[in-house]
Design a protein that fits this description.
mainly alpha; Serine Threonine Protein Phosphatase 5, Tetratricopeptide repeat; two-stranded antiparallel sheet; two-stranded antiparallel ribbon; TPR repeat; TPR_2
Length: about 290
């Protein structure tokens, strides 16, 4: 999910980072312990956009530490970029915007800060400004895979599937190791009914990030579409092992039970999905099919 993966969790994620930062007195003492949202390539702080952010990144303690860094280094755009990431993790979007604005003012070619700010605009629902920032990042660095992935997701959510596919494809052609590129291209293939290609992409995403439930759910749905219910069931159950608080995983498991004729178990799993997310429509419609009550 991107900073906000609106389809499921509504929490700061998604579009997140593989590395983390925490103050130990100065920028030279920053230790990688809590994920910082996107990669600044400066010599001061080195972090990169990934799929999830650790909770500590948005903690008051970490934000206070980063504020001390900025006081000591008020002209370092990297410091603002990292604190902006922490504000984003904490859901403090206006403060995050101000920090990314300042990072860009100090370094107008700071393409990672544009991509991070795009995530904030997306979280706020301003997809136009998010697209503008991704475009700005790509004008500065046409090989920045993170921006292609982020912009592609904007396109995908807006129904501009061909443009989304092209952006995910570009990121993959750039040899990205970001699993989101494969996961999301897989979703596009899936929407086109190209399930064999989708399964290949979901499998690659899983190999790059084996502990994320989303690509297992994606691959499982393509297995369902191909009638491979046992493979689908394995994927949905493994997604639940990874995180049993994702409504989609329970609803997908219920779908397999339903298709196998086990109405009682299907009903129970659909009900569990709706306990986690009362607005999750696939679970609601599925429960109606098997005659259950919320």
């Amino acid at each position: 999910m991107d900073i906000i993966d609106g389809k499921k969790r509504g929490s700061w994620v998604s579009d997140a980072t593989r590395h983390s930062v925490k103050l130990r007195g100065s920028l030279a003492g920053l230790v990688l312990v809590a994920a910082a949202l996107a990669g600044c390539q400066s010599s001061t702080i080195n972090n990169s956009l990934a799929t999830t952010i650790e909770a500590e990144q948005g903690s008051e303690e970490n934000i206070a530490s980063l504020t001390e860094v900025i006081r000591a280094n008020p002209n370092d755009p990297s410091a603002y970029n990292v604190r902006g990431s922490a504000f984003g993790r904490a859901g403090r979007y206006q403060e995050a915007l101000r920090d990314f604005d300042q990072a860009i003012a100090l370094n107008p070619r700071f393409f990672e800060a544009y991509a991070n700010r795009a995530l904030i605009w997306r979280a706020l629902g301003d997809l136009g400004r998010a697209a503008e920032d991704y475009n700005a990042a790509l004008r500065i660095n046409p090989r920045y895979d993170t921006a292609y992935i982020g912009r592609g997701e904007l396109y995908r959510r807006s129904g501009r599937v061909t443009e989304a596919f092209n952006d995910f494809q570009k990121a993959i052609q750039l040899d990205t190791t970001d699993p989101r590129a494969y996961h999301r291209r897989g979703l596009v293939y899936q929407s086109r009914g190209q399930h064999d290609f989708a399964i290949d992409d979901f499998s690659t995403a899983i190999s790059l990030q084996p502990n994320a439930p989303e690509p297992y759910n994606g691959r499982g749905l393509s297995y369902v579409a191909l009638g491979q219910l046992d493979n689908a069931f394995d994927d949905f159950n493994y997604a639940l092992q990874l995180n049993d608080r994702v409504a989609e995983s329970w609803a997908n498991q219920a779908l397999v039970y339903e298709k196998k004729g086990d109405v009682a178990k299907a009903r129970k799993s659909y009900q569990r999905a709706l306990q986690l997310d009362p607005a999750y429509e696939p679970a609601r419609s599925g429960l109606a099919r098997v005659g259950g009550k919320v």
